[in-house]
Every structure is written in C-alpha cells, then in structure tokens.
Amino acid sequence: MSLEKTFERFDKNNDGTLSLGEFSDAVLNFFPGFTQEDIERRFKEIDINGNGQINVNEFVSWFDEILKISFDVCDVDGDGKITGRELHLVMKTIIGKTHTKEVCAKQIRIADTDGDGCLDYEEFKALLFSDFKKG
C-alpha cells in the first residue's frame, strides 16, 4: 500500500484532506502510544499551509520522513539494509517487543523481495504496510 493510498484510507469524507480527527485515527493506527497532545502538535507541524487540513502532499512528506527515521534506527550498522539480527535487536531494546530471533528472521524473509536476506528501504516499507493492511 502506498502512502497516497494510506492517506485515502483515512480521508473518511473523501474531501482530499485530513481533518484533525482523521489524522488522529491515522496516527493512532500506526503509533498507538501517541497522546492527543502529540497528535495536535504534529498536525500543526505538518499543516504547512496553515489551513487546518492536511493534504496528501503534506501527509506523504511527513510519513516518508517518519519511515526513513524508523529505517535508520533499525539499520544498526548503517549499511542500508536491515538484517534479522538488527530487527531483533531493535524490537527487543528500543521497542520492547519480545519477538524471537526466528520471528524477526521470518519477517525479513516475507518482505525480502530481492532474496538477499535483508530489507532495503522499499522492502521495509512494504513490511510495515503489510502489517497495516492486516490490521
């Protein structure tokens, strides 16, 4: 699922923008730990033109930045790829999830479209969005 399609999914009234409520639903779907204060602050930061709505370009730009930061955190050695070991380390130490090494390796295998045993940025996004589509 592309970021544009994600935007469309949360644009409940199909007006081409996200209200604060629609944006809140989107954020909480991906980041359940965000507070309403966090959401409102982000909304104001993302609403670059200050019209009280987030358009698709503002949303895609913000979300892509978040995904790149997340990828860089997971890419512990900075080589542009995420291994099962790196994913396990991040899940355990930063996120606090108790996924086993085997579960992390399986997630890598599922999203590893080029067969190199690692995730590049595009494969990482696909993995995240595959979880989102199931939710």
TrEMBL record:
InterPro entries according to UniProt: Centrin_CML-like (IPR050145), EF-hand-dom_pair (IPR011992), EF_Hand_1_Ca_BS (IPR018247), EF_hand_dom (IPR002048)
Positions of the EF-hand domain: 1-33, 34-69, 71-97, 99-134
Keywords tagged on the record: Calcium, Repeat
A GO molecular-function annotation: calcium ion binding
Keyword Repeat (UniProt): yes
SMART domains linked: EFh
Name of the protein: EF-hand domain-containing protein
